[in-house]
Each structure stands twice: as C-alpha cells, then as structure tokens.
Amino acid sequence: MPTASFAQLPNAQPTADIIRKDILANPGFGRYFSDHMAHIRWTLDADWHGHEVRPYGPLTLDPAAAVLHYGQEIFEGIKAYRHADGSVWTFRPEKNAERFRRSARRLALPELSDEDFIGSLKALLAQDHEWVPTPSSEADECSLYLRPFMIASETFLGVRPSHEVDYYVIASPAAAYFKGGVEPVSIWLSSNYKRAAAGGTGFAKCGGNYAASLAAQKEAEAHGCGQVAFLDAAENKWIEELGGMNLFFVFKDGRIVTPKLTGTILEGVTRDSVLTLARDAGLQPEERHISIDEWREGAASGEITEVFACGTAAVITPVGELVGEDERIRCQPSDNPVAKQIRRTLLDLQYGRAEDTHGWLTRLV
Ligand code: COI
C-alpha cells in the first residue's frame, strides 16, 4: 500500500535525548507523548486534505466546537513494536482501520481510508521512531502506543453531524497497562450501571462509551478492583465486557469461550487474534452468550479453569476474581497456563520472535 503524502513539519524543540531515554526507561501508560502528531482535516466541501505531521502540542478549538458539546468523537488504540534488528512494526492495522470506519459510520463522522489510516502511522513514525522503546528482555512488553482519533471541530451548536472534522494520531511510550503486569487482576461486577444497549454505540470505539464506564470504574476502585465487568442491559444476565477489554473463559475440556458480538460489545483486535491463536494451539474457541451464572457455577465446579481479559493496551491479563455486592467468584487457584501461553505466543509474534504465519505484521520503519 503506498504511503499517503504527509507534509513533514519538524518540531524545532524536540525532547532532549537524555530526557527521552529517561522517559523510555519507565514510561508507565499514557503519561508522556512523542514530539509530533499526524493530522488530516476533513470538510464537507473538500473531503480529506492537508495531510501533515506537525509538532505535538495543544489544539486550538473554538469553545463552541461540536465535540465539546455532543461528544461526536471516535478513537483507536494500536501499538508499534521494536524488533531485535531495530525495525518497527505494527499489528493488524487494517483491522483497526476497518473498525475506525465502523465507529465513524455510527457516530456520523467521515470514513478514513486504510491508506490514510496506515499512512498516518507510518508518517508519524518516520519522525518519531526514536520514541519506540527497545524491550530489555522477552518479559518486557514496552511499546509505543498509538492513539488515532477523530473529532467534530465545527463551531456550531445545532445538533447535526459536523461539517468540519479533524483526525490526529498521537504517540505515547508504554509499559504494561496494569501495574502488576501479568499478575491476576480483581474485577468489579457492576450492578448499578450498564455499558451499552442494542442499537446504541457499544460496538463503536467512541469516547462516550468510556465516559459512561467511569462511574462504574470508580465503584470498582472503591472495592479494590482494577476493572469493571458489565452485564447486558436487556436481561442483566449475559456477560459483555470490561470497561476497556474483552473477556475469555477457559474450560477444563479445552473450550475457550468469549461473549458473542451482538452489537453491544467492542470487536477487539486482540479478541479476534486470541480466537485464532487458541485454535492454532489445539483449543476449541467458541463465540456465544455466557451468563454470569455459568461463570459462578463453572468457577465453583472447576469446569472453568481460567478467566482472562484482553485488549491492545492490556494484552492478556488473568482475572483473579470477580467481586460483586455480596459475592466473590474465583476459579480454583491456578498459574493461568492458557492465558500465559497465548500471551507469550502473541507477544513473540508482535516482537518478531516468532514467524508471522498469519501475515499480521506491517512494517512502519
Ligand atoms: C486499548 O486497549 O487500546 C484501549 O483503547 C483501551 C483503553 C482502556 C486503553
């Protein structure tokens, strides 16, 4: 695929080498940003235009910009990985580009082509490749987290799709999303809140879904949990997903089950990859409804041996327990071998330590 032509406007005051190295040694998640950002503008009359990579910095938005009032916004999460030979790669970017277009359609935003989406990642990395951390060992899951997003920037308070839109990509060096790395996390079962309903925006990656999960996330934290699990809005029975990750259940007999996509669940790229890698590993993946009772009973009987969460930011993280108002659901103690094996296979692929048999990697630099 040809790279779209992006004007390069270099930052005249880039971060000093010594400061960048310090940041890359301990980046945390989402706290530091590289020196540039990619930008493309859309207007109703002129379509997409003005492709550029310019210095990272605050945006100038009119206080009446539509996004600030009606939340017409979508985003993506995708990572850049440094391989042992110094080259930089990303993982299944065409899946993110496709999901970005699905999200755009739902939020009445303009659709961006694969060429512009992947081209914007390449153009940004052409400037900021030094921001991609080098893993210190196979256990080090550092990367450059890329955050493409699109906002309604028209100055207009009427409620209708914006006639002016801006697309950006920013980049943030990242270590493990959860401080404990691969240590099991506790999850809070939200009974007060729902994330999505049929016909709503559950499948779209829009800021509103995450904003709506924050009150439940606060509840989770108040109960000592790192994430929140949501049940479906219609029956309050079926497991959907976490605030920002999909869920998998490993059964004793080799089945591995994830909630079926019904329009209320985010179609995770990691989720889709886990389904394939599980099949490669001889497990039987199933996409189907799974109820909270099945989780309770399966954990108690030992039928369900592991539960794990997955996402671009979190990779694969075992779930230690599900905590509800009056209960704690725990699988029998285990070292989470299936989660760890799939996680290892995925990371080996992403960091170029294993053969890319599915053709999932795209070189950025
Ligand atoms: C991702 O996994 O990339 C996400 O967008 C989720 C967010 C919780 C960081």
From TrEMBL:
Primary enzyme class: transferase
Catalytically driven reaction(s): L-leucine + 2-oxoglutarate = 4-methyl-2-oxopentanoate + L-glutamate; L-valine + 2-oxoglutarate = 3-methyl-2-oxobutanoate + L-glutamate; L-isoleucine + 2-oxoglutarate = (S)-3-methyl-2-oxopentanoate + L-glutamate
Entry EC no(s): 2.6.1.42
Cofactor: pyridoxal 5'-phosphate
The entry's keywords: Amino-acid biosynthesis, Aminotransferase, Branched-chain amino acid biosynthesis, Pyridoxal phosphate, Transferase
GO molecular function: L-isoleucine-2-oxoglutarate transaminase activity; L-leucine-2-oxoglutarate transaminase activity; L-valine-2-oxoglutarate transaminase activity
Pathway terms, separated by semicolons: Amino-acid biosynthesis; L-valine biosynthesis; L-valine from pyruvate: step 4/4; Amino-acid biosynthesis; L-leucine biosynthesis; L-leucine from 3-methyl-2-oxobutanoate: step 4/4; Amino-acid biosynthesis; L-isoleucine biosynthesis; L-isoleucine from 2-oxobutanoate: step 4/4
Pfam families according to UniProt: Aminotran_4 (PF01063)
N6-(pyridoxal phosphate)lysine: residues bearing it: 205
PANTHER family given in the database record: BRANCHED-CHAIN-AMINO-ACID AMINOTRANSFERASE (PTHR11825:SF44), SUBGROUP IIII AMINOTRANSFERASE (PTHR11825)
Primary role: Acts on leucine, isoleucine and valine.
NCBIfam families membership: ilvE_II, PRK13357.1
Name used for this protein in its record: Branched-chain-amino-acid aminotransferase
Species: Franzmannia pantelleriensis
The organism's taxonomic lineage, starting at the top: Bacteria, Pseudomonadati, Pseudomonadota, Gammaproteobacteria, Oceanospirillales
